[in-house]
Structure formats: structure tokens, C-alpha cells
UniProtKB/TrEMBL annotation:
Residues 64-255 form the DUF2268 domain. It comes from Sutcliffiella horikoshii. This is Zn-dependent protease. Pfam families: DUF2268. Keywords: Hydrolase, Protease.
Length: 260
């Protein structure tokens, strides 16, 4: 199915995002248009602004839809990944966390679909980095094939580490997110032992899961993401395994490699 022509949706309904949300409902179950839009906003989707149509035109001029399509085909072949619909929308330019931690771009991956939220001035390689990170999630989820509530904090930490390590492997280290360099290895080892390992079985449905993963409250910011990237990079270095070979393993196998 691949790229959905959301550029046409945006031309018609940029200022009526609930109309866009209604078009998305056929890809979801048991959700209203308003609930879906709220969920997507939480993950970085745009909120209408007066000059927003200009952002849409800039993204079209950058040829974002065709660039993402071509790169997705390459990644699909590289990882033997699934065929899924991909939706592209502008990102929320007023979301400070996205600007600080993700260079203005954001995305959200489901098992069977993918959303990319792009700033109007995004570079081609930044676009590829976002797609690589999010599509990697889908490839990992499709291979492990568990229900959402079966994923633990350690699973999520490894999933995020795999995704950002994919960016380093496929696009280049300079296009990894800024959070990959927030802490030293010594700090990350301490975080792993003090925060992640004691809570490694916390399920995705439990409130502490997201607090630990994103580093909310009193936890170090982007805690789970940073520890995940550290663990995957450590495996690649110490086990002398290629990223592609690591991707062929299950999360359980990768977890064992993390603590050998």
C-alpha cells in the first residue's frame, strides 16, 4: 500500500484536521475522529496555524512523498519488512520537546501503519532518518508478533535502541537524534542498573512504563531511549555483530546478548 496521498488531503482540509482524521478512521478500530486526532497531536502532528498551507506547499516542493516512498522501498528490501500505509503530515511547530529532542520532526509507528510528521524545512537525510527509525519499529514488531500489553519496559528500551541504531547504520551517525549524546557511558550504565533493570518487567499498559521510557518527572530525560541506544551500540561493538545480523534476532535473544 505504501504512501498515502495526504498532500491532497492537506490541500483540501488543512484547517479542518478532524476531516482528515475522519479519512483515517478506516485504518483504525474503535476510535472516534476526535480521539484519533488527539492521539496524533500527542505524537507530534500539526495543529492548524494561519500560514499552515505554506508549510504544506514547502513539503510538496521538497518532494517529501516521493522521497519517502523511494527510501521505504529500499528499507523494505534491506530488512524484508512488511508493506504498510505511510501517512505524511506537517509536525507541530510549537511542540518544544520535538524541537529540542527530535530536530522538529516526529513520528508514530503502529504494527500495520506509519505516521511521519515533518517540519517545513526538513533536510532529505533527516527525513530518511525519521522514516528509518519508525519503519524499523514496524519491522521489529512484525517479527516479534506480540500483543501490545505483552511488551515490557526492557522490550521498549531495546526497540528504541534498535531504531536509532538503524539510523546510525543506514543514514549516518550525524543524523541520529540529539538525545543519543545526552549522557556518558558511565552515566548510562548507572541508569541501566538503577532505573531500567529494577523495572524491566513493567508492562506497556502501566503508567510507569512511559515515564521511564521518556524520562518524565524525576527520571533523567529520554531515559529509556538513551539506555536503549547505549545497549544496542554496546552489543554491536562487544559481540562484533553487524546491525543486519542483530535485526534477524528476536527481542528475547537481543535481551540475552545485553546481559551476557
Amino acid at each position: 500500500m505504501s504512501i498515502i496521498h495526504t498532500d491532497r488531503w492537506l490541500e483540501e482540509d488543512y484547517h479542518q484536521p478532524l476531516n482528515i482524521s475522519k479519512k483515517l478512521l478506516k485504518y483504525f478500530e474503535d476510535v472516534t475522529a476526535a480521539e484519533l486526532y488527539d492521539y496524533l497531536i500527542m505524537h507530534g502532528m500539526y495543529r492548524p496555524v494561519r500560514d499552515g498551507k505554506g508549510t504544506v506547499e514547502k513539503l510538496k516542493t521538497l518532494d517529501c512523498w516521493n522521497i519517502v516512498l523511494a527510501e521505504w522501498k529500499r528499507l523494505k528490501k534491506l530488512w524484508n519488512g512488511p508493506d504498510i500505509p505511510i501517512f505524511i503530515f506537517p509536525s507541530d511547530k510549537y511542540n518544544n520537546q520535538i524541537k529540542r529532542d527530535f530536530k522538529g520532526k516526529a513520528g508514530v509507528a503502529f504494527k500495520d501503519k506509519l505516521f511521519l510528521f515533518l517540519p517545513e524545512d526538513i533536510e532529505v537525510n533527516e527525513m530518511k532518518a525519521l522514516l528509518t527509525h519508525e519503519y524499523n519499529h514496524i519491522c521489529v514488531l512484525s517479527k516479534n508478533n506480540r500483543k501490545d500489553d505483552q511488551y515490557t519496559l526492557l522490550d521498549s528500551v531495546l526497540i528504541e535502541g534498535l531504531a536509532e541504531s538503524a539510523v546510525k547504520s543506514v543514514v549516518g551517525k550525524e543524523y541520529t537524534s540529539s538525545w543519543t549524546s545526552y549522557y556518558t557511558d558511565k552515566e548510562l550504565e548507572t541508569f541501566l542498573n538503577n532505573f531500567i533493570i529494577p523495572n524491566k518487567e513493567v508492562k506497556k499498559s502501566e503508567k510507569d512504563h512511559m515515564k521511564l521510557l521518556y524520562g518524565k518527572g524525576f527520571y533523567p530525560k529520554m531515559l529509556g531511549y538513551c539506555v536503549g541506544y547505549y545497549l544496542i551500540q554496546k552489543i554491536l561493538k562487544e559481540k562484533k555483530i553487524t546491525y543486519r545480523a542483530l535485526m534477524s534476532k528476536s527481542l528475547s535473544e537481543i535481551a540475552k546478548l545485553s546481559f551476557e
